[in-house]
Each structure stands twice: as structure tokens, then as C-alpha cells.
Amino acid sequence: MKAPFVVTFYSFKGGVGRTMALANMAVELAQRGRRVLVADFDLEAPGLDTLRLSQPATPVPGVVDYVIDYLKGQESPDFSRYSYEVPKVGGYGGGLWVMPAGLPDDNYPDRLSSIDWSDLYEYHDGFLMFEDLKNQWTQHLAPDYVLIDSRTGHTDEGGICTRHLPDAVFVFFLPNDQNLRGLRPIVKAIREESRGPQRKEILLQFITSNVPDLDDEEGLLGNQLERFKRDLRITDPTSLHTIYRYDSLLLLTQAVFTKDRPRSRLAEQYRKLVDSLIALNPRDRDGVLKILRSRDARRSRSLEAIESQLESIQAAHPDDGEILFALARARLEQGRGQEAQALLDQAISTGFESPEALLERAELQFRSRRRDQVANDVMAALQLDSTDSIQVTRAVNLLRGSHEDRLPDILRTPAVQRLAPQDRMSLAQLLSSTVGELTVGTDLLREALSDCKDERIKRRLRSTLAFNLIAIGHFEEALQEIRVGRSTQDELGIQDAFNAAMAEWGLQGSPSVSSFRAAVATDEGQRSDLNFLQCMALARRIIGDTEHAWQLLSRARQGAMSYRAGSTLLSCWQYRLVSRGRFLRDLDEMERMFQGEAIHPRVLTLSAESAQHD
């Protein structure tokens, strides 16, 4: 059974809304499905039992009575006698319990004054008593959170609340000199616990509370906050919050705004504080996922703090695949690939086989040249119902670089078969670098055509299919696809007209000037993409418009030079995607053809060779 996350609410002076904040945050946590215990250690001025929450019919003893009963018997009493549940608070399995300060009778002040806290710790094992109390909280209630309302000032009880019991302390203050002077030694002592016997790092959050919501034309508030940040060493901006003064007569009735007025501005400020609290707790799953998924939330923290947080999260959730996956991504952001790989392995072994996790691991394996496992993860991702079109593209790209021989296997996977016809067309256009890829892309396009009902999309599919068929040497079939639904050559657009002319060249062994003239006739001269310039340069050279052909070839070369090395470009000389260097060499071969050498486009030779192997 996991221990609760214990948070103390402390202020050096009263009147800053500390108890009100605690009650509102406790109710909000319970409404979000957390089990919450609030303990009233503000023993001199208890107030939790005055808030507008249901009280038990018979008053229940609390902290003071627990300590006195312990001193009488020298053993820890049964905690369940000193707490009660608040009915009808909580949702999704959440609940709220209260451990009051003590019985609110006339003898309460005498009972409180009879306790010597120093003597309790020094001679009566007070430390062990409170450790046992914490264990009983876990055993009796299994709370997710324990929120402690601490008394103000410098006191022994305050030390119990701010250093012994908590995992975190929320420090409330009005930003004035009196609070700053009082908080300096308290905050210093809390931080020094990390070097004490327990080696306990207590997280700190600072809340300027009851602040007037007014224009700060003279910078008074800003200047004071800068002093607090400097003197209290508040370096993480996410640890500093503000609760503005809220004028409402409901405050006189001790209303709990997150319950009674959930749409109010004050309730919204308390909810934001709850968000920050949840994000501190390495055992709160929702908070952990939120902090892991937010790069900005981590960016403002020190490297040491980030590392401590990530390690705590991993220790608290060793079998939660979703959290382990989010941790892996955080490690990837840090450039720690080996640790990310181990976390991904661990996440997937728990049964968390999301497409993101499988593809992230496949990519890591690909980068580290352990490519034998890439195909297994890729194919597993393509079997999942949750894999979307972007993830399919990522998966296929990984397969292209590691196991091209497995590309035909994608055709029968659920993720690919679920793709819309236009998405399968986009995937086919990606598969345009080798004969093997083009063959798989051709099968994709054929299936997409058979499933498509939209005539406009079907026409685009046929044009893309024609391109692929030319690339693999199926010239006659390419012409058939281009001419489906078109009675004359004049109905062809520029892409289909050029492809028809190239298919005829492949069938006849020589270019048809009339067909290329038809392609040029559709050129409106408005496009400037490299493939278009290359196509029109070739077409115009064939119809004898040599000067214009040279201009277009020069523009294509200049454009290609602007791309960085390693870029991929579509070349009509080969009818496939090629590297920038290969594209420039294709232009060199075209230039030699323009100069009169008996050179044919490579697609005609390559396609003929590939067709012989079909």
C-alpha cells in the first residue's frame, strides 16, 4: 500500500487565507477522485471544523487528544477514533476525511497547554509516535493526500508540520517585510532537511495570498516579489503562485468555493494550485503524466531537480507502461537514448503496445543500427486499431530504410487497409525510390481505386497509378489508366498528357512529337517546382523548342542547387524519388541529350529491365 503525499500549509502570519485554501484544495482533490485526509495542526487557533462542510453529530477528538492518550499509555492509540469522514464530498472514488485539532470543549485549552512538545520528542519517542500515525493514515484510509494545516510563527508544532511530516510545504504570505523576515529561517530550515539525518528533500511552493487585484503602477508588488524571490531563493517560476483578494460575503459563512461556487474566479485559482500540487507528487498518475508531457513544465527547473523528479517517478511507477513510455520520451529529449531504449522495453513488456511506443523503439533501434528488430515493431504497430495515418507513414519510412523486402507485408495490415483512398495514394507516392517500393505502391493504388467512390479522387488515383506503371515498365496499362473516362487527348491535364507521351515513348521506342506537343500545350507557365521544370524542358526539347528547353533546364539546375545535400527530389528522367546529387546527374544526362547524344531517359531502360523480372 503506497504512502500518502503529505503537504503542509504554512504561513508565518495569519490572515492570508491558508486554511481556506487548504479546504478548497482538499475538496477539489476529492472531487477529482483522490482520497484526502486533512489534519488540523493549527492547535492554538483551529479552524477546519468551522468551514461549511458537514460535521459529525457527536464531536470527534483530534490531534491534541491523540497525543495526550499516547502519553498516558505510551503506545499509539487507534487513529480511527480521532477522525471522521465528510459525507457527500468526492467523485470517481474520492473522499474527504478530517482529523480535527481536538474536542471543541471548554477543557481544550488546558489539554493543549499540558503538552510539552520538546519533552514529547526527547523523552517519549515523539518522532516514532508521528511515524506510527503516518502509517495508520495509510492503513486505515489509504489516502492519496494528507493536507496539514500548520499553526503560524516559530513553534515546535510548526517544526513537526514543516520538517518532520511533509513531502511538500505550501508557504502562504502577504508580500511585506514582516512576513519576509519571519519566513527566512523557516524556509532555510525546511531546505536543510535534505542534509539532515533523514536526507529528506521537502518540496516548496510559495503562494502570495490575499493580494489586492489592483494596478501596480509604481511596481510595489513587483519589487516586493523580487525581494522574496531573492531572499527565499525562489528560482523556479513554477513554484510561485498568487491568490488574489476576493470580495464576497460568502467568506463570512466559511463557504468552500470549489464546492459551492465552482465557476468563481477564486475557485479557478484554487484549482490551479491543485494542478501544481498534483504535479509535485510522483505517486499521482495524472500529475506525473501531465508533467512528463509538458516540456515547458520541466524546462524552468534545474537539471538536478528534473533528474530527482524523473527518478522518483520511475521508482513509483515501475509497472505503468504509459508512464514508462512518457519517461522514455523525456529521456530522449535529454539525448539519453540508451536509457530511453530500456524504458521503452520495460513499457512494452508491461503490455503497453501503443503505436507511439512501438515506433519510438523501432526508430531508436534503427538509429543504433540494431535493425533486425525494427520490422517486428513496425509490423506490430500496423496491426493496432489505434494506429493513425501519420503513424503508418512513419512506420513505412522505417521499413523502407531497414527491411525493404518486408514492404509487401504492409498491404494486408489493418492500419493500411483502414486508410482512406487519398491517404493510400499519399503513401504510394512516398514509395517511389526503388522498383520494389514502386511495385508495393502500385498495389496500394489499385486497392485504393477499387475502394474509392469519389470520381474526383479516382481521377487523381489513376494519374498516380499511371506514374507508377510507367516507372515499372507497364506502359500499355499506364496508357489505359490515363485514358479511362477521357474520349480525346484534349481532356488530359498537363500531368496526364506528359505521362501519356512518356508511356507511348516506352511502347514505341521513340518519342511522339505530337504527344509531347499536346503536353506542352497544357503548360500555363505558372508552376516552378523542379519536377515540372524538368518535364517541360524534356518536352520542349523533343518538339524542337530548344531555346526554351535550355532555359527550363537551367532553372531546374539552379533550383536543385538550393536544396541541401541528402534532399530527395522527384525526377522524370527516372520516374522515381532520387537524391539531390542523382537529380543533378539526371540533368547532366538531359543536357547531353539536348546536345545531340543518343541518350534516352533512364526510366525507359530501367523500366524495361524491371519489366523483364515481373
State the fourth-level CATH superfamily of the domain at 5-281: P-loop containing nucleotide triphosphate hydrolases
CATH topology of the domain at 5-281: Rossmann fold
The description of the largest β-sheet is: 8 strands, mixed
Distance between the termini: 65 Å
Give the overall shape. Answer: elongated
Which radius of gyration do the C-alpha atoms yield?
A: 36 Å
Overall structural class, as computed from helix and strand content, comes to: alpha/beta
Mean pLDDT: 91
Outline the structure in words:
This protein is α/β, with parallel strands linked by helices. It has a domain at 5-281: Rossmann fold, CATH 3.40.50.300. 55% of the residues lie in helices and 9% in strands. The protein starts with a strand and ends with a helix. The mean pLDDT is 91.
In short:
The protein is of the alpha/beta class. The chain has a domain at 5-281: P-loop containing nucleotide triphosphate hydrolases (Rossmann fold). 55% of the residues lie in helices and 9% in strands.
